[in-house]
Design brief:
The chain contains ten helices and 13 strands.
Length: 293
């Protein structure tokens, strides 16, 4: 086993994971471009959905410094900022989350966390002092769950009627829906974690459609973020995935994530999603960012 002095001499020892990813990407060591980008999916979306919002969004991967530059250039146009990450145990990965957020200049209004796990959750209301912490956990397990942190200057109401039911061992999903308002501006923000291989995409689409129908009655913008475990890169090849995406488009929920969020040497999938519904508004969507670990 190498000692600490030896380890410190190893390549990339003193850089962060995100810096290493950027080095690999810049030097062509990451997966092929056609795995990181999904031009065909984007083109199909444009053909199915003639959305000015979709056409206006710049889809790209960014390092922390690149993101901060984008933030500075759009500072005056940000109405609401939303962050999502699959945390895979908030208790275990809190420090990494805080370190990541500290590298970003934007102080997000809303943080959506999936797979928070049911350990010491009350404690985090004291850690995130500027936020109110709302969460929902599974009834039969301490694993998974969804949490949403909302800045305290927002008025926040939980919308329990929109929750997607999680009734048995073959239909496992946690969802949390909040109506937030500040300065007479209202949004609905939803966080969803759909357990992998626990329910058909078809059944989930039916359940989600009921929630979307309820949301449309509010006539206000809505952002849905979460780990849905539906690979929408299969939009053209898997009928249930096609129906799932089309159902969202029919209800005017536009995908804000069209590039792979889980990448390995052999595969690239889009299972972490963000959707935006403009409500009765005609303006561009607020700044949203998706980071997945």
């Amino acid at each position: 086993m190498a000692n600490n002095n030896t380890m410190s001499e190893m390549p990339f020892y003193n850089i962060s994971t995100y810096q290493l990813i950027d080095v690999m990407r810049t030097n062509g060591l990451n997966v092929k471009n056609d795995m990181r980008e999904n031009v065909s999916f984007y083109n199909n979306l444009k053909s199915k959905c003639n959305s000015e919002i979709l056409k206006a969004v710049d889809f790209s991967y960014n390092t922390e410094s690149e993101f901060n530059n984008l933030y500075r250039s759009s500072l005056n146009s940000i109405e609401l900022s939303v962050f999502h990450i699959n945390i895979r145990s908030l208790n275990k990965n809190l420090r990494g989350l805080i370190e990541l957020l500290q590298t970003l200049e934007l102080d997000f209004d809303v943080l959506v966390l999936t797979e928070i796990w049911n350990y010491n959750l009350e404690f985090y209301t004291k850690i995130f002092k500027n936020y109110n912490f709302h969460y929902v956990t599974p009834h039969e397990s301490n694993i998974d769950g969804v949490g949403i942190l909302v800045k305290k200057n927002y008025t926040c109401n939980e919308l329990t009627d929109i929750r997607i039911p999680s009734t048995n061992s073959t239909s496992k999903v946690e969802s949390l829906w909040l109506e937030i308002s500040c300065n007479r501006k209202k949004y609905i923000v939803g966080g969803i974690y759909r357990h992998p291989n626990q329910q058909s995409i078809k059944d989930f689409t039916i359940q989600l459609d009921k929630s979307l129908e309820y949301i449309l009655k509010f006539h206000i913008p809505c952002i849905i973020a979460g780990d849905l475990n539906v690979d929408i890169s299969k939009y053209n090849t898997h009928s249930e995935t096609t129906d799932y995406v089309n159902n969202l488009l029919i209800n005017d929920f536009i995908p804000m994530i069209i590039m792979p969020t889980r990448i390995t040497i052999k595969s690239a999938t889009i299972i972490d999603h963000i959707y935006y519904h403009a409500g009765s508004k005609t303006t561009q969507p607020p700044l949203v960012v998706m980071l997945s670990s």
